[in-house]
Amino acid sequence: MSSTTPGPQETATFSMPTPHPDLLHLARSVRRSQRILGSLDGARRSEALRRLAALLETRSERILAANARDLEAAAASNLEKPLLKRLSLDRATLATLRDGALQLAAQPDPLGETIRHTLLDDGLTLRQVRSPLGVLLVIFESRPDVVVQIASLALRAGDGVILKGGSEAQASNRVLVACLRDALASEGLPTDAVALVEGRKAVAELLTMDESIDLVIPRGSGHLVRAIQSSTRIPVLGHADGICHLYLDTGADPAMASRLAVDGKCDYPAACNATETLLVHVGFLPHLPPVAKALVDAGVRLRACQASRSVLEAAGFESQPAADDDWRAEYGDLTLAIRVVDGLDEAVDHIHGYGSAHTEAIVTQNEEVAQAFLRRIDSASVFWNASTRFADGYRYGLGAEVGIATGRIHARGPVGVEGLLTTRWLLAGEGHAAADYGDGLRSFRHRPLPLSETRDSGYQRRETPMPMVTGSRST
Amino acid sequence: MSSTTPGPQETATFSMPTPHPDLLHLARSVRRSQRILGSLDGARRSEALRRLAALLETRSERILAANARDLEAAAASNLEKPLLKRLSLDRATLATLRDGALQLAAQPDPLGETIRHTLLDDGLTLRQVRSPLGVLLVIFESRPDVVVQIASLALRAGDGVILKGGSEAQASNRVLVACLRDALASEGLPTDAVALVEGRKAVAELLTMDESIDLVIPRGSGHLVRAIQSSTRIPVLGHADGICHLYLDTGADPAMASRLAVDGKCDYPAACNATETLLVHVGFLPHLPPVAKALVDAGVRLRACQASRSVLEAAGFESQPAADDDWRAEYGDLTLAIRVVDGLDEAVDHIHGYGSAHTEAIVTQNEEVAQAFLRRIDSASVFWNASTRFADGYRYGLGAEVGIATGRIHARGPVGVEGLLTTRWLLAGEGHAAADYGDGLRSFRHRPLPLSETRDSGYQRRETPMPMVTGSRST
Predict the structure, then answer these.
(1) Residues in chain A closer than 8 A to B444 (CB atoms)
(2) Predicted pLDDT of residue A13
(3) In this model, does residue A184 exceed pLDDT 70?
(4) Cα angle at B406 between B238 and B231, to 5 degrees?
(5) Average pLDDT value for chain B
(6) Nearest partner of A118 among A462, A445, A455, judged by Cα
(7) Which of A297, B151, B292, B431 is most buried as measured by Cβ atoms within 10 A of its Cβ?
(8) Where are the alpha helices (DSSP H) in A107-219?
């Protein structure tokens, strides 16, 4: 939007420039539109989601043609292969996006849902209700599907969204954002709740706008996420690294250990939830060779500590010596680090010292050890006898996923629509003044009330007429 | 800790220095201790809270003597009166702190509580459980009671806490922190989960340590909060401003309007939830003079827009003309701004344009207007026919209060112990591999399970024996 000129080259952090007035204006317009969107009836936002699904169908030729233009330009400019793959849209992707929008349309509106309901005193009732988070800034590379995926979630949550795509996906992004804005317009909803911003220069400017933007959602490389995290005071939802561990306890079933090591490493090695380091209890060492065999058969290269190398070598398996850097590596390919530990304490210390707090798993038949692992590991996801690859919003049953957060604030682990919501506290009284409570004329009752009638978008209907509170001092 | 020399003078932001190695060491020790504290049985943390309450009793003479030394030094150095008042401890304050610790000890342990429970597939069960947030940095001025109040909450939540107090409360803070650490030690809990840091220089260094500190909680002036917010990438829980509005709709009961205006302004004018601006529907103007009378009788000075001034003047009430700055003023005293609006839209726009998103209230007998106000106002607390002064953790029934947050991320409004917690996702399987689901060999069931057995600190006991999953591809 503010500029379509890409910056000279990638840098580790973004500088803190003064935002262009056009960009400030755009962000304020998104905020204003979001406040309208979030205060309207949920049925209209559902209808807009259905309308979006329909547009993705009727405009599919136009969308695919735009994507073909992007792909052509990208191929000509020698875009890296993984980015090229993620740039591509096809009919199956469009169908998945349509299904996602329809599923969200069918979900009950989260806004106005009461999550806490308390009678403070006669006639004085407090509700904590789910409310839109506000304005999201989504920064992504390639992946035009992200436009529809996150904007659909934002629409369900009543949030505004500023989409900052890469120039490689410009044509695709534009036609998809037009679908979103037209879907809003067709239901009389404010179109500016969704805005597309282009140009690398805009990123640094947007990251300074903490008055207008509530949450940044980066979808891209660890490099991109780290650069954003170190360049803004706006909270960032996501993860820079996915250094996931699988700990084979001495009580592990050897066949299960092989199975989960292979699945964790090989199912999708580039995924953030792929296993990067195998921690092996010294008591499990005799069973390491069959695990190594399964891994090597699956094409995995091993980088091992001295103790595990001796065992591997004796059993005839090749490995490279692992250095300290290996414990911090997110290989993203068929390389796996192996380290021997003398028990749970050392495994926990290794994970806290080198890990990224994303996902760690233990394999053991010993319930007591498993329980201690689950209790002690301070990561977003902690598994017992299951592959690290299960850390995923879809697999967790959250429906659509915004991303996986490794921070501790707000949302943690796979994040669905709940991560795009906040709460407000709504209090309805009958003229209640605080001074009466200080004077001891009245005291609080603090009685929990049922969470029923949870779906109106504001407050509860009053059940009693409205007498004035007696015992007033102030009037 | 790192230095006890106060900096030369107050500045609007803190610079970003390299932390002193001692301070880094201290923060890492808090993190390590917190992880132990948070993974231990809740009963031991309850016992430590009871022990703390006992120490506050048995050491009360020592605490009050230390406080007397601080007060003496503060009086000699001409500390400002409000700070002096907030520096003072007495037996009543100590009794309140003891009661608070005992109440927290009696509460069920929040850690390990299941808030989501899903059967992903046969033998594969997911729980989202409450977990400690991590390490808190509390920065406060005067108020030695904050030490006990927040550390008690942190202990309940399994969090570590770095307390950075002011030099004016040094003696009091030291004796109180000793009580906390001794209470931890007496239960065999890691004492370094609570640490006291002294010296202004340390603040800037601590604010750079986003690896070791998860949340900053400033307790002090808006000036302090703003300086901290603009100097750190660590999330800050709190509010810089409390510019609260009371909107008198044309459908307001005039007596209730007077009552709530006087209570909102006069009950405690220095509080963040005091009413600062009265918005008056043009249709309510005929009823403004009696409201003004109640306010003036209570000692309030009025600063009014032109339209309201005319009405006030005609009725014989003095007022000063209000300028744009008045709509952004947190007076903190018996001054009140008054502005006439032509209806709900203008009231909402004024609040979103000038407010601090803390607390706003409407007075009206018109349910439809009230509902629209509650739905549309994007503030942490929104009230109908109640004083803005009710925005408070104690009044909301949250028990102790960490502070009032005006941000939208993580916690919003009055924050109790829930704001000091995060969640983790615990998955227990029987050797489940992700590849089986991609291959269509298995599909997810995603069946919600009851939240019962919610208090164990880790995972659920398995109800079935542990057969291997069949249909495996990877082994």
Answers:
(1) 395, 397
(2) 59
(3) yes
(4) 50
(5) 91
(6) A445
(7) B151
(8) 145-157, 170-186, 200-206
Task: State whether B136 and B159 are in the same domain.
Answer: yes
How far is residue B67 CA from its own chain's centroid? 25
Q: Looking at the structure, do residues A43 and A179 belong to the same domain, yes or no? A: yes
Q: Sheet with A114-121: list strands edge to edge.
A: A447-448, A114-121, A124-132, A421-432, B381-386, B359-363, B244-248, B275-281, B335-341, B301-304, B320-321
Strand bridging mode B244-248 / B275-281: parallel
- Helical packing angle, B91-106 and B145-157, nearest 10°: 0
- Which candidate in A116, A287, A402, A422 is best for mutational testing of the B interface (most B CBs within 10 A)? A422
Of A262, A294, A428, the CB nearest to B385: A428
**Among candidate residues A349, A382, A399, the one where a domain is terminated:** A399
Tell me which of A33, A37, A390 to substitute to probe the interface with B (most B C-beta atoms closer than 10 Å): A390
pLDDT tens-digit map of B119-175:
999 999 999 999 999 999 999 989 999 999 999 999 999 999 999 999 999 999 999
Q: Which residue of A has its CA nearest to B211?
A: A407
Same domain, B250 and B377: yes
Query: Residue A125 pairs with which residues in a beta bridge?
Result: A119, A428
The answer to whether B358 and B351 are in contact (CB under 8 A) is no
Give every CB contact of residue A93 below 8 A, 6+ residues apart in sequence: A145
Whether residue A230 and residue B233 make contact (CB cut-off 8 A), yes or no, is yes
pLDDT over threshold 90, residue B464:
no
**Same structural domain for residues A60 and A178?**
yes
Rounded Cα–Cα distance for residues A102 and A106 (Å):
6
Q: Are residues B75 and B141 in the same domain?
A: yes
- pLDDT band at residue B3 using 50, 70 and 90 as cut-offs: very low
Q: What's the rounded Cα separation, in Å, for the pair B99 and B93?
A: 10
Residue B13: pLDDT band with limits 50, 70, 90? low
- Please report whether residue B336 resides in a domain: yes
Structure confidence by residue, pLDDT tens digits, A154-167: 999 999 999 999 99
User: Percentage of chain B surpassing pLDDT 90?
Assistant: 81
Q: What is the pLDDT of residues A77-116, one digit of tens each?
A: 988 887 888 899 999 999 999 999 999 999 899 999 999 9
Residue B12 has pLDDT above 70, yes or no: no
Read off the tokens for B140.
Answer: 């406060």
- Phi first, then psi, for residue A51 (nearest 5°) are -65, -40
Angle at B84 between CA B78 and CA B85, to 5 degrees: 150
Asked if the Cβ–Cβ distance from A235 to B409 is below 8 Å, we say yes
A114: domain range?
21-229
Residue A251's nearest CA partner among A390, A385, A388 is A385
Count CB-CB contacts under 10 A for residue B53: 24
A366-414 confidence digits (pLDDT tens): 999 999 999 999 999 999 999 999 999 989 988 778 899 999 999 999 9
Together in a domain, A252 and A204: no
Number of domains composing chain A: 2
State the Cα–Cα distance between residues B353 and B369, nearest whole angstrom: 20
Contacts of B81 (CB under 8 A, 6+ apart): none
Q: Is residue A325 part of a domain?
A: yes
pTM of the full structure: 0.90
Q: Where are the alpha helices (DSSP H) in A88-131?
A: 91-106
- Are B395 and A120 an interchain contact pair (Cβ–Cβ within 8 Å)? yes
**B5/A473 Cα distance (integer angstroms):** 49
